[in-house]
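Friendly challenge for the regulars: who can give me the structure tokens for this chain first? No prize, just bragging rights.
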Amino acid sequence: MLRGRPVARRFSSLLVCLFAPGLSSCWRPLPNVAVEAEILAATGVAADLTFAVEGRPLDEPEPELGDGRLGWEQALRTVVTTDPRIQEALARVRAAVAAAHQARALPNPILGLVLRWGPGAPQVEAGLTEAVVGLLRQPRRVRIADFELRAAAAHALTVALDVVLDVQAHYAQAQAADGLVPLLEQRAQALASLLDVAESRLRNGEGTQAEVATLASQRAQLEVEVAAARAQQRESRLRLARRVGVPSSAADWRLDRWRAPDLVAGDERAWIDAALAHRAELRTLDWRLAALDDERAGAGTLPLRDASVGIEAQRSPDWFSGPSLSVPVPVFDDGSPERARLDAEIAGLRHARTLAMRQAVEEVRVAFAAFEAQSDNLRRVREVLIPLQRRRREQAESAYRLGQADTTVLFLAEQDLRAAEAHALQLEREVSTARFRLQRAAGGAHAQPEDR
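First reply, four minutes later:
Bragging rights claimed.
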């Protein structure tokens, strides 16, 4: 029979004792995961990135793309702030934040009431129990949820870097296509003039059928190249339109003028070290591995996860109260299958991390080799081929003015010079793409080695 203080006070005292182990984990602050700021820093984009609850429209408003012009920085800002893939990754981060908050919530106690009627006064039984093992595991659950939150943030950064690389490559391709089409058209015009001269010479008895047939064949081949370049130009703009959020747009904006890429590669080892230190994919695996390691460390209490303690009171007709304990007997389930599952997942993640490291090194070395090779070719075209073609054209023009050569020699020299310039433009695009891929392989613009 209760004496000295009410039953409610005894309930309260016992509840405080039960909840005390998990209170410290409730007060533990969430990890400082500023994923939006990290994405902006890694991509080098100056914008205001926020998570949108509602889906974006099919086509972004045209004012966001400017008045008839889509600049390089503007395209990157638009894709970072509106791309659905980035927003989906941010949504997963929000879900992980909610899961971390939920992990900090203490489990609700269970209240049981029993009322019995029979001879004499009704009997009342009341019980308040709490899963004691769950309270003891509370700090571990919080740590695991925090690890998963950091992993979700690292995954969002991975998605953002892939999206930026995608739009960079397509913008550069559209720029190169805009520059290539005029060069090919100039070559076509020059070849058409050359063919007219050859036909005129043939009519005057000065040329040959072979010369006319050769030039006509070259002109037909060049017309095919011009048509293919125009189709490629249109396709590159349509693909860019989808990436900047206006798939239904006419895609007839004015792009920034093409800028020649930097040909300095730097040290390959420095790029590899940057990749191993900054790759978001490796960080994602690290946080997931930490979460599984923590879960495995607490797997010894799994057979007792349904254990509970509490206090029970009974009135028949006086009140009696006392503690209660409910503990599962691990006869059929000793927790070993769950521990084996966690061990297998941990081993799998360790192997996945090794693979991710090797892939990071491979991607850096492949991108570095491609950048150096394309840069060397571009230097040869710029420093050797184009100067030679220019001197050849100057010599042909001088010989033509002196009457030592006909227009055929001059036109052929002009044609070869235009072809060399078009080749240089294509190589510049390939060098730029290789540079973008190298930065992505290293972990983003912020991970680029300073000593290049």
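Strands lie at 69-70, 110-116, 123-130, 254-255, 308-315, 319-326. The first helix runs from residue 7 to 26. Your move, everyone else.
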